Amino acid sequence: MTRIGIVTASTRPSRIGHHVAAWVLDLAPEGVEPVGIDLRELALPFLDEPELPSDGRYAHEHTRRWSETVTGLDAVVLVMPEYNRGYNAALKNAIDYLYAEWDGMPVACVGYGWSGARYARSALRQTLERVGMVVVDGAALHLEKTLDPDGTVRADDAAVADVRSMFAALVAAATARERVAAHR
Q1: pTM
Q2: pLDDT (tens digit, 9 = 90+) per residue, 11-59?
């Protein structure tokens, strides 16, 4: 069983990301155990660890909980909005809290917004690669095309196929990572 975290990145009171995350979670195939993670519920303060994340010495319980959650996953899907052509601060903050936990972790983004979060996904990719994550193709939902402003997903066949392909790529990357770890 491959444990894949489905992270709702938006923390806004009027967000719709949790609807998108539920849609992604529902498309998880057999053999995948989807784990819902909501950054609003996680409620990480802005990075407040006194040591560098790369040191792995966490002073705060909220950081240790976040580390344990991520360590228990085989891969991650980041369900993220696009704000002003960038990704949201809560997501950047959650990434910045950790370092070693991300190394080799397969990740994909399901972006949503007027342009399917094209710019945000592009910007985020640089950060994900910097922390050592293995980025696989995700999916995009476009407001008023495949996503209503109230969060109702009206995905077309292409978007569903993208999510299914994303899950297959994440499972393959997680399996490859596991094989490498077993040979160390």
Answers
A1: 0.96
A2: 999 999 999 999 999 999 999 999 999 999 999 999 999 999 999 999 9
Q: CA 21 to CA 35: how far, in whole Å?
A: 10
Q: For 10-77, give the secondary structure using H, E and C.
A: CCCCCCCHHHHHHHHHHCCCCCEEEEEEEHHHHCCCCCCCCCCHHHCCCCCHHHHHHHHHHHCCCEEE
All structural domains of the chain, each given as residue ranges with its CATH number in brackets, are 2-182 (3.40.50.360)
A 10 A CB-CB count for 83 gives 15
Query: Helix, strand, coil % (nearest 5) of the chain?
Result: 40, 20, 35
The dihedral through the CA atoms of 79, 120, 130, 52 has a sign that is negative
What backbone torsions phi and psi does residue 111 show, to the nearest 5 degrees?
-100, 155
Cβ within 8 Å of residue 172, ≥6 positions away: none
Q: What is the largest CA-CA distance in the chain?
A: 49
Rg of the chain on CA atoms, in Å: 16
Amino acid occupying residue 128: L
**Cα–chain center distance at 157:** 22
Token digits for 36? 């819902």
